[in-house]
Amino acid sequence: MKSSIYSLTFDQLQDWLIEHGQKKFRAKQVWNWLYKKRVNTFAEMYNLNKDCQLVLEENFYLGTLEQEIKQESKDGTIKFLFKLSDGNLIETVLMKFSYGYSVCVTTQVGCNIGCSFCASGLLTKNRDLSAGEIVEQIMNVQKHLDAKGKDERVSHIVVMGIGEPFDNYDNTMDFLRIVNDQEGLSIGARHITVSTSGLAKRIYDFADENLQVNLALSLHAPNNELRTKIMKINKAFPLEKLMPAIDYYLEKTNRRITFEYILLKDVNDHKKEAEQLVSLLKDKRHLSYVNLIPYNPVDEHNQYDRSEKKAILDFYQVLLENGINCGVRVEHGTDIDAACGQLRSKQIKKDKEKQKA
Ligand code: SAH
Ligand code: SF4
């Protein structure tokens, strides 16, 4: 059965070529075509010999994603809805910042973690994405930039789309190695951030990977009672399991970690929670950054509202006064359903309605 060539790391492609009677140096040529020249067919790889081209063609697809929808926001954010080869839909978002272009990728079709505020978790996981399907999201967006002819490149990646990356750990790690590889896209590890809802045992593994990739933890509450209420994953990995994993990560990597905190009106945005958060983080504040995130309303989760501006500022102030590095996330593309999973869940609803009609 054919698979996506974008699923292979450089070493894996090299091994594969050798096993199939090809020369080792072909891997470098193939990657140059894939990631630097960014061709769409094997036939265009004219410096490979015919035999090598054929064996690749017989065994691999070069691109399996089909673009279904492209929504452009007033602020330049573009949301892509892609169809996978099995018909499943996923989302990818391109955002423009002063420091460059950042892409938010999806790692799973749906999500089993089921956080109470999230559109992605509305639909349980259908399957994991292959490393190639995650890489292809970047390639498609890069080709969109290429088509503009301005020589612009994707310079940053956030693994914050649909899915829990640490529930698809191996494919996510391959993805990171592929996009970071100097023979390919060469996107700097320090420009890549992986966000997890807190699968503690995988945080230990991630610390041991020896990657310079950034880690973000979706904390959202400073105590177990509240965290369990809004994120049921906290039952499996409560703070007394999660925080030691974070400490291990910090000790091992000495890299700063981002704590994400969605502010939900009257739920987790009081002074009390801000103070609890300070206590939770104070011993690691030199390596912590708290990202306060305005809640992006999701129709199905109408029990939540966005915090008032004053509550956000007061919360921020408490952290700041206590020496915790923090900021309030600037939003992108709120006019185009940019909260992860929203475009997809709306499209699936529409498709279902169409089927009924
Ligand atoms: N599963 C991973 C990564 C994908 S979610 C995780 O949970 O970390 C990426 C980020 O978007 C998380 O911090 C998540 O909590 C946040 N998020 C989810 N739904 C949101 C919403 N409605 N408004 C704002 N942020 C949201
Ligand atoms: Fe899954 Fe992350 Fe959404 Fe939670 S916030 S349901 S872990 S995608």
TrEMBL record:
Cofactor-binding details, from the entry: Binds 1 [4Fe-4S] cluster. The cluster is coordinated with 3 cysteines and an exchangeable S-adenosyl-L-methionine.
Residues involved in [4Fe-4S] cluster binding: C111, C115, C118
Residues bound to S-adenosyl-L-methionine: G163, E164, S195, S218, L219, H220, N296
Enzyme Commission number: 2.1.1.192
SMART domains assigned: Elp3 (SM00729)
Any one biological process term the GO annotation gives: rRNA base methylation
Domain Radical SAM core: 97-329
Keywords tagged on the record: 4Fe-4S, Cytoplasm, Disulfide bond, Iron, Iron-sulfur, Metal-binding, Methyltransferase, rRNA processing, S-adenosyl-L-methionine, Transferase, tRNA processing
GO molecular function: 4 iron, 4 sulfur cluster binding; metal ion binding; rRNA (adenine(2503)-C2-)-methyltransferase activity; rRNA binding; tRNA (adenine(37)-C2)-methyltransferase activity; tRNA binding
PROSITE patterns per the UniProt record, alphabetical: RADICAL_SAM (PS51918)
Primary residence: cytoplasm
Catalytic residues, chain numbering: E91 (proton acceptor), C340 (s-methylcysteine intermediate)
Catalysed reactions listed for this entry: adenosine(2503) in 23S rRNA + 2 reduced [2Fe-2S]-[ferredoxin] + 2 S-adenosyl-L-methionine = 2-methyladenosine(2503) in 23S rRNA + 5'-deoxyadenosine + L-methionine + 2 oxidized [2Fe-2S]-[ferredoxin] + S-adenosyl-L-homocysteine; adenosine(37) in tRNA + 2 reduced [2Fe-2S]-[ferredoxin] + 2 S-adenosyl-L-methionine = 2-methyladenosine(37) in tRNA + 5'-deoxyadenosine + L-methionine + 2 oxidized [2Fe-2S]-[ferredoxin] + S-adenosyl-L-homocysteine
UniProt subcellular location: Cytoplasm
Reported cofactor(s): [4Fe-4S] cluster
Pfam name, any one: Radical_SAM
HAMAP family for this protein: RNA_methyltr_RlmN
Function: Specifically methylates position 2 of adenine 2503 in 23S rRNA and position 2 of adenine 37 in tRNAs.
Extra remark beyond the main annotation: Reaction proceeds by a ping-pong mechanism involving intermediate methylation of a conserved cysteine residue.
Protein name per UniProt: Probable dual-specificity RNA methyltransferase RlmN
Species of the source: Gracilibacillus thailandensis
